[in-house]
Amino acid sequence: MGFKRTEGFRFTFGTPIAAKYTVLIDGKQQTKHACEIIDVSPHGMKMFSSHEIGENTNYLVQLELEFILDEVLIKAIGEIVWKKKYGGKYQYGLIFENQPGIEKLIVSELKIRRKKEVSRK
What we know:
The chain has 121 residues and is α+β, with helices and mostly antiparallel strands. Helix content is 17%, strand content 53%. It has a single domain (11-120), classed as predicted glycosyltransferase like domains (Thrombin, subunit H, Beta Barrel). A six-stranded antiparallel β-barrel has the order 1-2-3-6-5-4. Pfam families: PilZ.
């Protein structure tokens, strides 16, 4: 899997954010797991999971993610564009496609989060 990022910004968290994902195979929910978000942009994210998400060339494998950047629960569908083993976990790069409402919500939540972080300092 090869992928070159082209988005304008990516927000990296000092401490990864806890999240959940459900594996979708051909749109059908499979298993739910915890994960940690390392960084996020309006178009995708990098995350850690202790579970390996198998690649299946016969079926479309996606992740339905649930996470909170500041206050609002965000639900997005991501496609895995790359994967690598990292210690005892797996690191994944995901892309969100054709979800303009999610893009706007991520930008809005990141702005609010960053303002709060700056005001605390």
